[in-house]
Design brief:
With 160 residues, the chain is mainly alpha-helical. The protein has 6 helices and 3 strands; from the N terminus they run ααβααββαα. The protein has a domain at 48-149: Arc Repressor Mutant, subunit A.
Length: 160
């Protein structure tokens, strides 16, 4: 039986993006997608999203942080945060402890959470090197400074 040759499909013309390439939001979104795809590939075995990773890092750096303060720091409403914290607690990564005034809960990483986060931070730092490979150190510092300025988080006390 004769094999049929596949004919190459003609490539569609380049898509005109109009004004999109000139919009900060559009370029930031494309960059975010690229970063998140690379983050997912680098940290797949941990099953932790970038947002949850950020929460774990904040709890590690601020043992006993309240749920309210963490919600403010990550820009989530309390009800959304509680659902995420429930999942992290079910996985044995963090625990809630009653605060001193008995009306608040403080958050701490468990031993398992500390171990996993330590391993994950190594992967995330390697991911950072990979994602920033096209930038010089000076360009990376400039990009971070500009992004912080856009978000209003441009404190001189923050590391580059």
């Amino acid at each position: 039986m004769p094999r049929h040759r596949r004919t190459a499909r003609p490539q569609p013309p380049e898509l005109d993006h109009g004004l999109l390439p000139t919009l900060l939001g559009y370029q930031l979104r494309l960059a975010q997608l690229a970063v998140f795809r690379d983050f997912a590939a680098a940290s797949r075995e941990f099953g932790v999203s970038p947002g949850r990773f950020g929460m774990l890092v904040l709890v590690e750096a601020n043992p006993g942080v309240t749920q309210t303060r963490l919600a403010e720091a990550v820009g989530l409403d309390r009800s959304t945060l509680v659902a995420v914290l429930d999942q992290l607690e079910e996985r044995g990564l963090l625990e809630r402890r009653q605060g001193e005034d008995r009306r608040t809960n403080g958050l701490w990483l468990t031993r398992r959470g500390k171990t996993m986060l330590g391993r994950m931070k190594d992967r995330v730092l390697a991911h950072e090197v990979h994602i920033a490979a096209r930038l010089s150190d000076a360009e990376r510092r400039t990009l971070l400074a500009l992004l912080r300025r856009l978000t209003g988080n441009d404190s001189p006390d923050l590391p580059a």
